[in-house]
Fold these 2 entries.
Entry 1:
Amino acid sequence: MTNHQPQISLDRPETVIAKQDAMTSLQLRQIQKNYGAYHALRGIDLAVEQGEFIVMVGPSGCGKSTLLKTIAGLETITSGQILINGRDVSHTEPGERGIAMVFQSYALYPHMTVAENMGFGLRMAHRPKAEIDAAVMRAAKILRITDQLDKRPKQLSGGQRQRVAIGRAITRSPEVFLFDEPLSNLDAALRTQMRVELSSLHAKLGATMVYVTHDQVEAMTMASRIVVFNHGSIEQVGSPLELYRNPANLFVAGFLGAPRMNFFEVMVDSISGRTATVSTAGLMPLAVELADSASVQKGDKLTMGIRPENLSAVSDPAKATFAGQVRLVEHLGRETILYVDAGQLQCVSSESGTGNVTVQIGHVTSVAAEAAIGLRIDSRDVYLFSSGDGRTISARKSILAD
Ligand SMILES: Nc1ncnc2c1ncn2[C@@H]1O[C@H](COP(=O)(O)OP(=O)(O)OP(=O)(O)O)[C@@H](O)[C@H]1O
Ligand SMILES: [Mg+2]
């Protein structure tokens, strides 16, 4: 039976840009940004549909804030095009773009009350007082800060200040909301609360949101799609589970997931059909299904990836894929993280930086440091990456774990 389905992956930026219909809320076309000789954005293409919650992640300095600022009009682009609801705003003044941006630093005016801060954008736009008051009250109700309206920012907690900053964005009824790490100044409990509130705010307003964060949990839980950035370029775009289960390359695989995926250098022992058997010193051979596009030969060196939660401790040494000695145990209550010294089987760019293998056990365990341990890998959980360009060459995995 032949498969006539075109091999299109919706998480590839080049297919995303093709989706240009009336529902496209924000369209970025080949955005380039240079700061002098420094090339901060290297041809960003992205189409965001009306009502989507896009979360951008990437290492520090990769260009996330720069991109948000160019969308907001706070930075000019060197070349490319920005469209909001089909309107070219590439060179439009920030106030005319129909966007509102919320910063990590809140950026509230200290001498104004909460109500004045929230109504500021509308006052600048010379809207009538009754309209401003109504918009402020509506936003304050949504954010549950109606009793704080006469206070000044310094009389508020961090979480309340952040709500005011979000409220200031809401009153302007923007077509697109931009958030740059809005929760990173808050403590863990407040972050969780605000995360839930932002998700319900998004559901209530149905607005298009673009949100930058360093927080894996925020990215995985809030996003309709995640955009992974690196060095001013997009590495991959897709739903959280799609990116987690089917990272396009080694960078995305290593970036999403905490603790990080374990990576090992392996060699191809043999190929049979679309299955490659790989091994290395200290590791029993694993037969891994290859992607249709993969071109792999016996003797090739590859990088193998396995997530910490896909390693299981086995008591029968005959069932172990590799063995080692526990160096450190972290009891997190609901789960336990083990760092295992697997001798010759060294982890490259491991979580701990020591070459130890990270193992995540979904329960409390009595395993103690210095214990000998056997670990089993199910070859269906294994990822293979080309050692040249880092592209994923193992077969796609179903989004739901087997
Ligand atoms: N005004 C500027 N002039 C020169 N270089 C700049 C300017 N603003 C940003 N850059 C550089 O552009 C790159 C991207 O910066 P950006 O602030 O967008 O990173 P980021 O992804 O938001 O990082 P972080 O996660 O740390 O906030 C950095 O290398 C930064 O040094
Ligand atoms: Mg930033």
Note: DSSP finds nine helices and 20 strands in the chain.
Entry 2:
Amino acid sequence: MQPEAGTVVALSAICTHQGCTVVADGDELSCPCHGSVFDLTGKNVSGPAPEPLPPVEVHVADGAVLPGKA
Ligand code: FES
């Protein structure tokens, strides 16, 4: 996601409940397995997920979002 121009934030898509892959659902991320919902900062807001989605380190190079540090 891009909370402001020039800043890119990436989150793990692995649900912190039992490891299913979360999907974008409007302005939230939802888990299809047991219904956990996360906001776009990764915070768990409902459902059984016990922890937020952890951030994933990324950087921008030549207009592309790439994994890891620049
Ligand atoms: S694995 Fe995501 S809510 Fe259970």
Note: The first strand starts at residue 10 and ends at 11.
